[in-house]
Structure formats: C-alpha cells, structure tokens
Design a protein that fits this description.
Among the domains are: about 80 residues, Alpha Horseshoe (Serine Threonine Protein Phosphatase 5, Tetratricopeptide repeat), CATH 1.25.40.10; about 110 residues, Serine Threonine Protein Phosphatase 5, Tetratricopeptide repeat, CATH 1.25.40. It is about 65% helix and about 0% strand. By secondary structure, the chain is mainly α. The protein is elongated and about 115 Å long.
Length: about 280
C-alpha cells in the first residue's frame, strides 16, 4: 500500500536578513551620531590626568639636594614649599632664615628665624639661627642675648658657639670671640659654620694665614657653597689693602698709598662688611 508523504514548507530567510540589516543600520546611525558630537565640540579637551600633590618630604629632599649643590635661592624655594604644606615646621623656617642671611636678606632672616622660635622656643638650633640673623642685621645686643639662651639649652651645640663668636667679634670682644670659635671647631670638626666663623674671627684679628686655612677647611667640607669663597676672597682683599697702607718691616711703605684706580682689584673699597653678603 503506497502512503504519500506531505512535503514540509521551507522557512523563509527573508525576516532574518531584514533584522540583520536593521541592526547594522542602527549601529551605523549610532556611530555617526557619536562622530557628529565630536565634530561639533572639537575644542573640548580630554579630561586631564590628575597630578599627585607633592609631599613635604619631597620638598625637603629637594631642598637638601639643592643646598648641597650650592643653589641657595632654589633651596630657599624648596624649603618654602615645606613650610607652605606644614606651617608649624620650624626646621623649614630655620633653614630659610639661615639661607636668606647668606644672601644678605637679613631682615627676612630675622623674621623667619623668629617664627621658628615662636613655634618651638625650646629648640636651641632655632635660637642659634635667630642669633645669627640678628647679628648679621646689626642687632648685636639682641643677638648676644639670644645666642646665650641657645647655649643655656644646649651647651654642646657647635653652631651656637660659632654664632656667639661672630657676635663677640662684631662687638669688639676679641678674646671671647676667638675662644668661642675654637670651641665650635673642637665640638664638631665637620661643621662648615664652625670653620667659617673661625676664619672670619682670625681675619678680623689680622691673623690672615690662619684665617685662610680655616676657610680652606670649610670649603673642603662644602666645596659648592659660594659664600665661603667670598669670605676667603675678603681675607686676600684685606691683606692687599693692609700691605698698601702700612709700612713694611724695613720702615718703607710697600707701595705708594695713592687712591685706587678702576684697574686695581680693590677699586672703590674703603671698608668691607663684617661678612660677605650678596647674590652668588
């Protein structure tokens, strides 16, 4: 017996083609819309990558490196960065004060050192730097009192003895000046300030060969600190002027004491400051 089979109708693929075309068209429209938005806003910059804020330790490390390299103004700026982030950081203020003094900014040095003392009056280094700033600002009596207060807090602080030696020298107390300068060196033979001060005191007392040796010791410890070379230069300058103005051991003047000319290395010099100041 023959049984006929009913043929199945084939499904049309046309609906799938239509759906696929619709999806492709929609994707194209979305893509073109995004491009059109970008074209309409060509000047809108992308969101910048946030820059991490610098830390006080980062500024401090930079300041120490700059000072070691003899870049005093730049070191002041880095220490100011520390102080801006940490207003109660007396160390940053103290260093700014000392470095400002080296550049001859003595009034600013006094202000900054006083702020450091206000923050921590029990820190002898704060008082020592304030004494230095006051001395270089010609406030000798206040400087003397402050230096002695620093030593009351720490009698073994070499910088306090060094700055006290400068103050005594500026007040004309020669014996105590030399004693304090020598004490500073004995307390710390690696202190730049101790050797620099000893050189200054010896120079002011006319012992210029010894003064040059002291400056050489300071320079060996910090060869990139410009004001040390200026101090040493003043020793040579003082010796040159002395030889021109005073008779030699034979009773004859070493040279005719005429007014200096523009070609002489000490032209226009009638006196020199207690210590070198100015930009370098």
């Amino acid at each position: 017996m023959y049984i006929s089979r009913r043929r199945r109708k084939r499904r049309s693929i046309l609906p799938f083609i239509i759906i696929g075309l619709l999806l492709i068209g929609a994707a194209y429209v979305i893509n073109q819309s995004a491009n059109l938005i970008e074209l309409r806003n060509p000047l809108v910059p992308p969101e910048p990558t946030p820059t991490p804020a610098r830390s006080a330790l980062s500024y401090l490390a930079e300041a120490e490196s700059l000072y070691a390299n003899g870049q005093i103004p730049e070191a002041i700026g880095a220490y100011a960065g520390v102080a801006a982030l940490e207003p109660d950081n007396d160390e940053a203020l103290r260093w700014q004060a000392r470095l400002h003094a080296l550049l001859g900014h003595t009034a600013a040095a006094v202000t900054l050192a006083q702020k450091a003392v206000d923050i921590d009056p029990t820190e002898p280094r704060n008082l020592a730097v304030l004494a230095m700033a006051l001395d270089w600002n010609k406030q000798y009596d206040d400087a003397l009192k402050t230096a002695l207060n620093a030593l009351d807090l720490d009698a073994t602080l070499p910088e306090a003895h060094a700055y006290l030696a400068e103050i005594y020298m500026d007040k004309g107390i020669w014996a105590l000046a030399l004693e304090e300068a020598q004490t500073a060196v004995k307390l710390d033979e690696n202190s730049v300030e101790a050797w620099r001060t000893l050189g200054y005191v010896l120079d002011q007392q006319g012992r210029r060969d010894e003064a040059l040796q002291a400056y050489d010791r300071a320079i060996a410890l910090h060869p990139k600190l410009g004001y040390l070379y200026i101090g040493k230069g003043y020793v040579y300058l003082a010796g040159a002027i002395t030889r021109r103005r005073w008779p030699s051991s034979s009773g004859q003047s070493t040279s005719t004491p005429t007014a200096p000319t523009a070609t002489t290395p000490w032209a226009g010099v009638t006196c020199w400051p207690a210590r070198p100041t100015g930009q370098f």
